[in-house]
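Incident log entry.

Two folding requests arrived from the same account within the same minute. Monitoring flagged them as a possible duplicate submission, but the sequences differ. Recording both here for audit purposes.

Request one:
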Amino acid sequence: MTQTLHIDPEFKAQIPPLTQDERKQLEENILAEGELLAPILVWNGTIVDGHNRYEILQSHPEIPCIVRNLELETRDEVLVWICKHQLGRRNLTPEQKKFLVGKQYDAEKQDGFHGNQHTLPVRSADAQNEHQQTSEKTCERIARENHISASAVRRAALFAAGVDLAEELCPGIRQRVLSGDLKAPDALFERLAKARPEDYDALLEQIKNPQSRAKPAAKQKPFQPEKSSLSDPSLAPPPGESNPAHKETSSIYNQLADAAVAMQESWETIFKQTPTLLTSWEQRKAVQAILEKHLAYLAALGFSLSEVLGSEQEQSA
């Protein structure tokens, strides 16, 4: 007889769902073995890992339900455990990995979370290393564990918050995003997480229909910054007064920034999936040719990489 366990929606939401083929294969494996090869992990009677195995057992009560309790103290520790456990999987989509990193960071930042032997890195016997671990910031440690930057961890937290908010506004969208079925720029979710309630609908519409954002832009006249109030001080509005042209230009800047972030994230995803693009000489040569076309396009617009690097150096001086 199957043991009655509780399902927490938030715990379950952190676990990437199985595809139909994966779920079918899991059920076939359980039936072939006649038992669970991996126990269902629980915390205070609530499932932490093994939701799919538990659901399959509901249809096969003849198979015993094997359960193992996790010795975790708080709910935040459970969330951290789930995220770290799932991040160990190899078949995560880029969206799933970013979501889990963000959720782990958010859970570890909550007041009262101190971790335990299940959630903290193993301490080194070397006192200097131990001191380095304790002085290391949470985002820096998570970044080190996942081979990304600390800023990427903070952005992942915004992305995760945006995905969760999108799920509240439009139930079912989280699974589409994390599975890769809905391809919306990560920057949109970051903006949604920081947006005001009155802006939710517009951002959600862009997330649900990412292709529609590019069509109007293609029909717009080329952006001419020399006609903008931002480039001509004499046309700038007095302090405290708004200017429609200023708002329109700011909107265009946001579109350009979103497009740049989307391109960068697409490149990073491709390089992660095919690392030989950066290590093979012939493949690097092909990538270089593609990049040169992009630089030629920027040059045709009047931008040069040397000028950009020069302005950055001046600002940092």
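Request two (distinct sequence, not a duplicate):
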Amino acid sequence: MGKIGIYGSSFDPVTNVHLWTANTILHRCNLDKIIFLPCSNKRRDKKMQTEDQHRWNMLELAINDNNQFEADAYEMNQNAWKITTYETLKHFKNKFKDDRIYFIMGADLLIDIGQGKWGNGDLLVKENQFIVMARNEINMLRAISSSPILRNNDDGKTFHLLDKGLAMEISSSYIRDEFSLGGDPRYLLPEACYKYIKKHGLYQ
């Protein structure tokens, strides 16, 4: 049985922090593979700043030299209002029936799930396992214990809480802003992605 992490984000664009986070999780949680899952551009809570094809191309450029990283367009091809993370994880559990699937997220999303902001929250927590990355000094144990959705569906193996040991919070939005304002965030994202953005005039 293999161990696979599902890492969802807009990746608009993918950054060095995304890659560093994925690599940290891969090694510290002894995963066999991490699947990068770009979200749908039809989400109501996020507005993509560039076309899906550009997001996809940059992600492939960023991970093509690591055989333990893989990109999957499943959510990118879905209508966002018809799908939740619960359905997404069911899809991957069916696709990889012989493997154990973990959903990778930040501690801020743990709080959102605990507050009932995610569709099928009870079933999502009850039927899945999560790797949760520390973020913004959020007390993850307190977040779990204070939420009925989280604590009542936790069998002791549901949440793998992980502190990266180093605060790295450079966001895609920061990089987009730098490009749009004429800055040069060259060393905050993979070199191939930087060149791709410059070539195609993205985020101007």
